[in-house]
Amino acid sequence: MYDKKTSSQHEKPTIRVGLIGHQFMGLAHSNAYRNAGIWYDLPCTIDMTAVCAKDTPENLQTFADKFGWRSIETDYQKLCARPDIDLVSVATPGFLHKPMVLEAAKNRKHVLCEKPLANTLADAVEMAEAAERAGVRHCCGYSYRSTPSQALARQLVDEGRIGRIYHVHARYAQDWIVDPNFAMVWRFDKKLAGSGSLGDICAHSIDATRFITGLEFVEIVGHLQTMVPERPLKANEPKGEKGQVTVDDVAQFLCTFDNGATGCFEATRLATGRKNNNCIEINGEKGSLYWDFEDQNYLYFYDRTAPAHQQGFARINATENVHPYSGGPWPVGHGIGYADCFVIEVVNFLTAIVEKKEYHPDFHDGVAVQKVLDAVERSAQKKMWITI
Amino acid sequence: MYDKKTSSQHEKPTIRVGLIGHQFMGLAHSNAYRNAGIWYDLPCTIDMTAVCAKDTPENLQTFADKFGWRSIETDYQKLCARPDIDLVSVATPGFLHKPMVLEAAKNRKHVLCEKPLANTLADAVEMAEAAERAGVRHCCGYSYRSTPSQALARQLVDEGRIGRIYHVHARYAQDWIVDPNFAMVWRFDKKLAGSGSLGDICAHSIDATRFITGLEFVEIVGHLQTMVPERPLKANEPKGEKGQVTVDDVAQFLCTFDNGATGCFEATRLATGRKNNNCIEINGEKGSLYWDFEDQNYLYFYDRTAPAHQQGFARINATENVHPYSGGPWPVGHGIGYADCFVIEVVNFLTAIVEKKEYHPDFHDGVAVQKVLDAVERSAQKKMWITI
Amino acid sequence: MYDKKTSSQHEKPTIRVGLIGHQFMGLAHSNAYRNAGIWYDLPCTIDMTAVCAKDTPENLQTFADKFGWRSIETDYQKLCARPDIDLVSVATPGFLHKPMVLEAAKNRKHVLCEKPLANTLADAVEMAEAAERAGVRHCCGYSYRSTPSQALARQLVDEGRIGRIYHVHARYAQDWIVDPNFAMVWRFDKKLAGSGSLGDICAHSIDATRFITGLEFVEIVGHLQTMVPERPLKANEPKGEKGQVTVDDVAQFLCTFDNGATGCFEATRLATGRKNNNCIEINGEKGSLYWDFEDQNYLYFYDRTAPAHQQGFARINATENVHPYSGGPWPVGHGIGYADCFVIEVVNFLTAIVEKKEYHPDFHDGVAVQKVLDAVERSAQKKMWITI
Amino acid sequence: MYDKKTSSQHEKPTIRVGLIGHQFMGLAHSNAYRNAGIWYDLPCTIDMTAVCAKDTPENLQTFADKFGWRSIETDYQKLCARPDIDLVSVATPGFLHKPMVLEAAKNRKHVLCEKPLANTLADAVEMAEAAERAGVRHCCGYSYRSTPSQALARQLVDEGRIGRIYHVHARYAQDWIVDPNFAMVWRFDKKLAGSGSLGDICAHSIDATRFITGLEFVEIVGHLQTMVPERPLKANEPKGEKGQVTVDDVAQFLCTFDNGATGCFEATRLATGRKNNNCIEINGEKGSLYWDFEDQNYLYFYDRTAPAHQQGFARINATENVHPYSGGPWPVGHGIGYADCFVIEVVNFLTAIVEKKEYHPDFHDGVAVQKVLDAVERSAQKKMWITI
């Protein structure tokens, strides 16, 4: 897929990228493609070929100029069909993922799709199959995996430092809609967003669990609740017309894993004071891990094999060269920020494309998360345990 | 009940105490009765009349001498029948609570009973009714309520600083049985202990929720799991004969409250590195609270009504005179320890007895917790949601 | 000194204690003598023979009754002369330490004297010489040494886990006099208190340094400042007559140690929000330690010899049996409080008396601290470096 | 200076930048110029005109291509003389700052110079005078000021939330040279680096103090020490030839400020476990602030004017729109990293250039820091207090 026309053996291939979406995730992707080649030794060069979004050409061109996208498109089908594009990056709301990914696959483009992969499990499966059939590389944008501190958690599990895992305990708590007068946005509409805190943030906890522990979910009982069912249609008219919130404000579930461990998960947008409190604790026979994105440069590790009198949760500043992804591009202690995990994600995915290596999280990982989201929804609806 | 024979109006009445139990909780109670009168201005004097336990008289006398118990008994019925005792303090394993409390009530003694009140809901109800019928004061030993920092949480809720409550999120995590060779003790036997982490520690989280928020539990789905089902019978023979663990290692439940809030609870003894991580977070529309017993002198409070740019979780060192129970007996910043919440519990209960005032947590509070424990057990067994 | 009249070889000797002082430190000592025998296996029994203070006999008797002191005295010379006393515990303001200690020594009583040992170096030396000549055991009340977490710091240094020490960085910060209208108390009068934050709290940092590191101070440059030089004479009359504060509000010094390490110390009572922030950090070639009394059950240890990718400050909950003094009397995670370090201090000192073993911190340690305090004062006055 | 040739009034002017230096700081500057226009609404466009460094043209071109510098120079005088450059950004070691800044000023270019401004006070003064005479805008690169959390500290002081300041207590601790076999680099050579931890990191604490508090330093006593005076010349030959370390490993000083407050400062590269522990605490009559770069998205604020029972250090996640610089470019809780403060610095400086507004920290601020560094050095040498 990627351009081989650069004849010299010594030259790096170029990956030509088309981005769809220019809101929050569009910014994150744009920054990542713009800067990935600076901080890590990429096996390719990145061409920021085109950005596509539903907007006026003027606005879109302004966006493109800022980030260095060389052209614009307003029709994603056109973008996907362009022969000068190798990789389509989908950074749109969930309900748009499927048509866009299918279109990319149809055109045999590699594809990076934001999470959750789709609004339904069936859609996600269809997308994964399409990408697989097309023979392209696929990435599902669970970007927190690319944070050095979270990757270090995975590494310590792999090294056997945690031993048999007993528990996963995760909470992803935000507070941006605590105010009942916070107005309607697309994220509150089930048709567009699929779900609320479940797909938006709990999905990250589910993926982090699979990534760090390697465990798979077995049985689940879930609960979804909408605590502020109506919100003003317009931000500046709190007393004005109301819209219906059709997604969950809070998602919770208990579960078991294939090794017999238990899980406890909660995601909410109503936890006053918690800004992006994406945290996960893993307790094993030999050690424990604790990770919290509000403290993103750190991993907490308890080593039960250390001399007994010196055991304690070690706060590891995961910014050293010995840490995954060199702990980020800066010297030790000079932490990274939110944007950097997207940079690392792009580095990893492009490397996998060029080196034709396996990549995770791919769409199958995306589907695996979707199975859990789907089970939580069904369980919450039927008020019963469900086997995945 | 308490002795009024001291005729002078100026003299304080004496409360004559009989303690049953001389293990972990017996120590905590003994210390509390011995020292309560020193640190707080009690409206009575305490007479440490007798201690009762199943042990050799020699051992028991040694215990009594250490703490200042004036006599010993080895039969709790005798103790309860003694006319020179006003208050019976029950500090034995759960399966013994009922007969002892009933005996105390029969003899019209005030009674302080350790938590959980009983091993079954039916027993707990019977005990509460007996105490009520006997017209005595009763206290269920949810001692963490007496920690100034937890009492401050309740106060802030009462003051309206949290507003409408959205979530309760609690975890009580310990790690003392992480080693699969940790040998059998009575706490692993359902007949003696009733349950495992559920009644032992999750009960505290349930009581803390009721205490701090004033909310009542409505619907519950629970899960209990025994992850290490066999343990050596003898501590020094890890390869020797095994016994069956008949209680849960981990207890979890999701729930709703009478105001529509959601709850998420987990209690475990297998969380490596967590020593006595009894923590609870309460998120409301106006603010949030976070309390963790491993950090017992502190309460974390997020005030969403503060100027926006200075909002953050405030770490309140609850050791000042302005805090509940004067923040403990020492000057500000000179923190209290585990034993002190029992001291304050005894101060509060004795004061209620003397002043004939309402006391909480009483046996009705104990029953309320028991209803939740019972629901969790039934829910876990039937794998369904249960309405309390 | 201690009573050997109890004839049986199997019986423990009794140490008969006389306490002088019944304010803040008098409370701490009383509690310690009252309860030491309960929590630790003492090689003696404690007889709380007499308490002595300048107060009405009624008030003093009330105090004695509360704690169990068997008699009262209002003249310390009488107390020291009593033949039924083995140990005199001095818990009075600094200017009274010398006459009381000398009197105790004259009467050949063991003596525990609160810190700082004296208001001047000369006095301290005289006291140490007197105690030494009398052949009695002496303890200078640097009680924080008895906190299990601080003792663990010492242990890790002893075990070589820190290696060559590069730096000591200590701050003891309180805020109880931040309000300029906080009224005059004896602690602000140089004649009574000797100094302000220097002797009161910086002395603890100096002792902790010597205790944990084993290093001795060599050169010092100090600075003392009184930022609120006048305060109301009466607490309820902020606009009323003022008194002169003749001691420092803040004390600071830089120093070098006998191994070439550097030190940086600050003590203040004007650090708004810091309640009893007695903290010390020690950086060595192999590891670092951080201890803060506001977090008294914990020690932070960074192990540079651990695998590189898992290094971090471990937060050690020093409440386990493997920790010094069994980590306190309760099970792991059930923390101790301020009062408990006095209990442990008394246990250690009485054990040293009975077993005729070396005890630290003794008066020589007290003198060593005093040398530093004296050097800081002279250095601050002369505005120059001083060699100790 | 900046290009006005773009005729339309509606068009933004362009600032054409020449960067000198392509090591650590060169990377930070390059990233900032590359991305400043993306995240903030700049009043100009940035043209990355040329990068200059002593390197092979190949290496330099590779660097230029990565970041988007349009041309390269290997002679800084040529760079400074180029008519197509408006702003020279100096990101070289300290001993090169003066000639480069003077050259830039001679050519009437705006100039951003890394900190410390120079290796000596005299040089710094000369540079500030030259820039002033040239009439150009000047920025001294104390970039931590641009961190939203540190800027928030300044804002709270400005708002009067801290009141009269009593103390500044700062420590900047790193551990990158704890290993005695860490080999010689230019930073250990006084001729090149000017000083060690003093100018490299303590300078940041000094600037942060001036920035946040607005106080000026009055009297100082300082201490510098080189604890590892020899290091291997080559990293891979620890037993090989040694070089002399001619700068301090640790710098400390005590001081007073113009309002009577006290200061205590330490900077070290030998604090095992401290990675980039750039922290400062400010205690005032009404409140306190605590800031630590290892926790860069947070500011701790204690508000003594809040209701007494709810006072505590609030951990403010300074990533909201209400915070300085909108708390960074991302939604609340999605923290920024080290690189972002350079981005904000460039945004602020370019804005000041275009809008012809006052800018801080400028070279006068750089000189003010230098006066303190100079006083510390002289004080350390003479072992006496020095008035600035």
Write the layout of secondary structure elements.
The structure is a homotetramer of 388-residue chains.
Chain A: E1 14-20, H1 24-39, E2 45-52, H2 57-67, E3 72-73, H3 76-81, E4 87-90, H4 97-106, E5 110-113, H5 121-134, E6 138-140, H6 148-158, E7 165-173, H7 190-193, H8 197-213, E8 217-225, E9 230-232, E10 242-244, E11 250-257, E12 262-268, E13 277-284, E14 287-292, E15 298-303, E16 313-317, H9 338-354, H10 363-382, E17 386-387
Parallel strand pairs in A: 1-2, 1-4, 2-3, 4-5, 5-6, 7-12
Antiparallel strand pairs in A: 7-13, 8-11, 8-17, 9-10, 11-12, 13-14, 14-15, 15-16
Helix pairs in contact in A: 1-9, 4-5, 5-10, 6-8, 8-10
Can you describe what's shown?
The structure is a homotetramer of 388-residue chains. By secondary structure, chain A is of the alpha/beta class. Chain A has 2 domains: 130 residues, 3-Layer(aba) Sandwich (Rossmann fold), CATH 3.40.50.720; 214 residues, Dihydrodipicolinate Reductase, domain 2 (2-Layer Sandwich). Chain A has 10 helices and 17 strands. In chain A, strands 16-15-14-13-7-12-11-8-17 form a 9-stranded mixed beta sheet. In chain A, strand 1, helix 1 and strand 2 form a beta-alpha-beta unit. In chain A, helix 1 packs across helix 9 and helix 4 runs parallel beside helix 5. Chain A is globular, with a radius of gyration of 21 Å. The two termini of chain A are 36 Å apart. Chains in contact: A-B, A-C, A-D, B-C, B-D, C-D. Strand 16 of chain B pairs antiparallel with strand 16 of chain D, so a sheet runs across the interface.
